[in-house]
Amino acid sequence: MPRSLRIEKENGVYHIINRGNYRQDLFINEGAHAAFEKCLFEACEKCEWVLEGFCVMTNHFHLVVRTPKGNLIYGMKWLQSTFANRYHHYRKVHGKLFQGRYKSLIVAEGSHLGALLHYVHLNPVRASMVSVDQLKDYRWSSFWYLFNKRKRPDFLDCSGGLEAAGGLADTPKGRDQYLSYLKWLSEEDAAQKEMAFEKMCRGWALGTKDFKKALLEEVEDDNEPVDQPEKVPRYDGERLREANELRWEMLLEKGLSAIGKDTKSISGDLKSADWKVTLACLLKLKTSATNVWITQQLNMGTPDAVSRYVSEFRTSGGDQKMPFKELTTKVMT
């Protein structure tokens, strides 16, 4: 069955988002904002998180959290359940508070983390709640704490945004320069596009293709022989299609390397070449790769042809012979 892609890493950095159930306004007044911030800060202390940034709006929140102990799932469960219990007790209401578990994207260090912090800090501006000039007065954000240094808790690290805006110092001058930078950024659609603002809440990871591949390699723990397609690891949801295809690509690259083939061989050899059929069979057994994807990657003609070639290969016992098993071991380990 499909499964969620949940990655917990020691010292991992995450963008976490959740909304009120049915997108209802959840943080309806200063008291609700303050109560959530209190729970968030308690979670950071309890789990020893580093809070890189946050912004609490009226019906949703954004958190940028570093987890030195790799305990994101435990910490988020505690944070949301504790806030919900307190909210219900105080308001004498019942029912589901958040729209779901929460969404988390693991984030690459450097420019991707910096762009995310800019995105989070500019949330109230994009929602037309404040202007950029008023941003430092928006109370429920790490940007407010940037300008109120003495009130920062020890676990709140406000240096990321400053560093990403040009290595600015955490001084009155540096903070003013960061505000000017955000004002420029808020007016520059091209710069926002380059930083991929529109993708900050999509998918499962923010980073380069190599970064994502490395993450998938870390979670590839299910290396037992798998013969039934329905038991093959496949990450659920349209938003995780990229993770599935990256996994298929990684295994295909390992397979090509193991048999001494390359992209020239793919285009130059027969569509029904034995080595192509062998790799296609391996991909069908060990991944949820579609016939369409395999056809395109291995230049095998049509999706129906892939099905036919693989079926004939298995009927002849090719997948039970030692060469196939040895190749499978090389690719899957």
Structural summary, described in words:
This protein is an alpha+beta fold and 333 residues long. It folds into two domains: 12-206, Alpha-Beta Plaits; 220-332, no CATH class. It has helices at residues 30-47, 72-91, 111-121, 123-126, 142-146, 159-164, 172-187, 189-194, 209-218, 241-259, 263-268, 274-286, 291-298, 303-315, 322-332; strands at residues 12-19, 50-56, 60-67, 103-107, 205-206. It has a five-stranded mixed sheet, sandwiched between helices. Helix 9 (209-218) crosses helix 10 (241-259) and helix 12 (274-286) packs across helix 14 (303-315). It is elongated, with a radius of gyration of 24 Å. It starts with 11 loop residues before the first strand and ends with a helix.
Provide the fold topology.
Layout: E1 12-19, H1 30-47, E2 50-56, E3 60-67, H2 72-91, E4 103-107, H3 111-121, H4 123-126, H5 142-146, H6 159-164, H7 172-187, H8 189-194, E5 205-206, H9 209-218, H10 241-259, H11 263-268, H12 274-286, H13 291-298, H14 303-315, H15 322-332
Parallel strand pairs: 4-5
Antiparallel strand pairs: 1-3, 1-4, 2-3
Helix pairs in contact: 1-2, 9-10, 10-15, 12-14, 13-14
